[in-house]
Design brief:
295 residues, 10 strands, GMP Synthetase, Chain A, domain 3, 34% helix, alpha/beta, 7-stranded mixed β-sheet, Rossmann fold
Length: 295
């Protein structure tokens, strides 16, 4: 039997659960997840390999109106993922229903040249009425499928995978069978630090946080990875909040990130964090390039 493979884009508004779904599909945390909108900034590739087929999922930033160069980069990344794929997975928050942003995305997706599958996510915490209302608002738009799922609980994901197999075509195995993402460890670790900062800082510091992984080096005995990273912020007041009294907040961020990094790397991690102010860095292309947001 011929080998099959294919690409699928995850599209939707901010904070609808795209990264949670990606992690659940590939069975490993490769994309950071927080309850803050616009957590994902880059296109994250997740790979699911089974006997006879391989699925490549593209997790994209939430579609919204850009406010700076970083925002423009994120929206271009999301738009680029609408082409050259076997199908688009359009995620909707079943609790909130179809909002104006969802409708705008739906209008764009009507022009897509591939099938669009609508996934009503968070069905584990949505009421039956909310799910029915969301489905009714979408039905008639001409999309291929509408399915309720819970990316967090895993509800409906086995059935979703079985459905997606039908969209695969004869093709190569693009990635080795043990590979779950094309993201370098350096970038994933930097994103893990940013995830913990977003979680712990809550609403005190806006999205003007970036993380640069300056150096990663395994010690000669192979037991400890030394990691040196810098958290970028845009204001002096933000720097104080990130560091915290007596460095307490920075230690909490580092401790939480270190645990995830050790799980990913399989060795003990010595993580050293610094905080640096770079005014308006989200509009400075050179800084964006350094952080991996290639314009």
């Amino acid at each position: 039997m011929a080998y099959k493979s294919g690409f699928f884009s995850l599209i939707g508004c901010p904070n609808v659960g795209k990264s949670t779904l990606l992690n659940a599909l590939v069975g490993q945390k490769i994309s950071i997840v927080t309850d803050r909108a616009q957590t994902t900034r880059n296109r994250i590739t997740g790979v699911l390999t089974r006997d006879g087929y391989q699925m490549i999922f593209l997790d994209t930033p939430g579609m919204t109106t850009p406010k700076n160069k970083l925002g423009e980069y994120m929206q271009k990344t999301a738009a680029d993922a609408l082409s050259d794929v076997e199908a688009i997975l359009f995620l909707v928050d079943a609790r909130k229903g179809i909002g104006e942003r969802d409708r705008q995305i739906m209008e764009r997706l009507k022009l897509a040249k591939c099938p669009v599958l609508v996934l009503l996510n968070k069905c584990d915490i949505a009421t039956r009425l909310q799910i029915d209302e969301a489905e009714a608002a979408i039905r008639g738009a001409g999309f291929s499928e509408i399915r309720p799922i819970s990316a967090f609980r895993g509800t409906g994901l086995a059935e979703l995978e079985a459905l997606l197999v039908g969209y695969l075509t004869e093709g190569p195995q693009y990635f080795p069978p043990d590979m779950v993402t094309d993201q370098p460890e350096r970038l994933i670790c930097a994103e893990m630090i940013r995830e913990k900062a977003l979680e712990l800082l809550k609403d005190e510091v806006p999205h003007g946080i970036g993380v640069s992984m300056d150096k990663m080096q395994l010690r000669p005995d192979g037991q400890i990875m030394d990691c040196y990273a810098t958290i970028l912020c845009e204001r002096d007041s933000h720097k104080g909040i990130i560091i915290g009294r007596g460095g307490a907040m920075l230690k909490r961020i580092g401790s939480a990130a270190r645990a995830d990094m050790e799980w990913l790397l399989g060795v003990k991690v010595n993580l050293q964090l610094w905080v640096k102010i770079k005014d308006d860095w989200r509009n400075r292309q050179a800084v964006l390039n350094e952080l991996g947001y290639e314009g």
